[in-house]
Amino acid sequence: LRTPEGARSLARYHLRELGVTKPPVDLKYVLFHWNIEYDEKDLGERISGFLVRDGLLRLICVNNRHTPFRKRMTIAHEVGHFHLDTAEFHCRITGKEDDLQEELAFQYAHELLIPSDWLRANKERWQRNPVEVAYECQVSPIACERWARALGLPLPIEYELMSKHEDIIDKWERKRVRANGRHSKIGRKEG
Predict the structure, then answer these.
(1) What is the pTM for the complete model shown?
(2) N or C: which end of the chain has fewer CB within 10 A?
């Protein structure tokens, strides 16, 4: 398990154990299966999420500022840490992915959300419309492309498809900002 292939193999084993045969993976069920609680908080700019494991407490918390795609990847990444190392606390800091534990969690998370056998079997679909395939996995096209490259399937995303993805993310971000603004206004009226 201390190798990238070991991490991917463990994720494949877990997919079989969970009865998952194709994406998208139901992460609520994954968390339920391993009795891991979930929360979202404003964790600032640099923290994507964290895992706490203390006795019976098992908690994954992700940054509520992030897009749904990024939250899914962070959850899967922290589930990887849950299975691959024994630390009581793990915190994922954006831009700090350079050690072995991070690489193993990266491998596990991507295999869990974008199973390599499934991606290879759908190579033609991926070549025709990578954004559709990424969305089927409920991950960002960038994450899907990065995983395809790691698997030796260097299939770059075309500019216009990438623009579509960025437009979707921009719309989501505007909705989130508007919703947060409404909550702020409600808070001011009541306060």
Answers:
(1) 0.78
(2) C
